[in-house]
Design brief:
By secondary structure, this protein is mainly β. The protein has a domain of about 45 residues. Helices cover about 0% and strands about 20% of the residues. The strands form 2 sheets. A two-stranded antiparallel sheet has the order 1-4. Strands 2-3 form a two-stranded antiparallel ribbon. The relative contact order is 0.31. The chain binds zinc ion. Zinc ion binds next to loops.
């Protein structure tokens, strides 16, 4: 089975001042709850059967990570 991983390279040579904050965004991933469908399977529907939208991704079917790095002295 194949697997694609994303890695972050942390490099202080690329910053010019302390307390510098960087924000990185991952690629989009399929939602781990609905597996990219955007809707929930019948076993997690509301009792009235109306809310079928995935509550985790709110129906988009995708999620992404936002990574914040703040450099500081030790
Ligand atoms: Zn979802």
């Amino acid at each position: 089975m194949s697997l694609i991983l994303e890695h972050i390279a942390i490099d202080p040579q690329r910053i010019s001042e302390l307390h510098h904050t960087e924000t990185l965004h991952s690629r989009a991933y399929a939602c781990p709850v609905c597996h990219g469908r955007g809707y929930a399977l019948p076993d997690v529907w509301d009792k009235d059967g109306k809310n079928k939208t995935c509550r985790f991704c709110e129906g988009s079917g995708k999620i992404a990570a936002t990574i914040t790095i703040e450099w500081e002295k030790l």
